[in-house]
Amino acid sequence: MRPKNRIIPQNHMTRQEIAEELNRRGVRTTDRNVQMLYERYLTLLGASVDQHIREVLHHVSSQNGGLMLSMDGVQPKKGNETLYVIREEFSGTVLAAKNLKSGSSEELQNLIRPIVELGYPIIGIVSDGQQSIRLAFETLLPDVPYQYCQYHYLKDIATPVMDLDRKLNNFEEHYKEV
């Protein structure tokens, strides 16, 4: 069970917002300290491909014929760095996470390469369709099938429908007034 007082990553908060929230909760800190702690966290996360994770990957690979990788980037606010996360999809194991300034294909390749070098077969790639992510994977793994993330696909095709629905609701409101 997850404690209710944790600040979870899904909130997509900036370091300033995290510092403000911690201060509100009585933990005195600064955004600079939050950044330092976050960088330490990412370093630990990056070093976490240890024996246990290798065993998980070996098990997943032998059961499925290889690994299914996914990559996504989260940018709390425009202009900030983007946190890129690579997961193995069958097990849900986070294999890499790093804050990147540009998210260029070259930077992403540097994040992906150590995972490829682990030597497990990679049987598929899933992402949100971001061009630099696709190019990075295509460059390193040209023969591995790629799939556009179903969640992002459905969200993207639903957006115009929702926009039209909103306009229709506005039209109905206006029509009722006439």
Break the fold down into its secondary structure elements and pairings.
Elements: H1 15-24, H2 31-46, H3 51-64, E1 67-74, E2 82-88, E3 93-100, H4 105-116, E4 122-127, H5 131-140, E5 146-148, H6 150-177
Parallel strand pairs: 1-4, 4-5
Antiparallel strand pairs: 1-2, 2-3
Helix pairs in contact: 1-2, 4-5
Low-confidence stretches: none
Shape call: globular
Report the β-strand fraction as a percent range: 15-25%
Order of neighbouring strands in the sheet with most strands: 3-2-1-4-5
User: The biggest beta sheet, please?
Assistant: 5 strands, mixed
Radius of gyration: 20 Å
Describe the overall structure.
The chain is α/β, with parallel strands linked by helices and 178 residues long. The chain is 51% helix and 18% strand. The protein has six helices and five strands, in the order αααβββαβαβα. A hairpin with a 7-residue loop joins strand 1 and strand 2. It is globular.
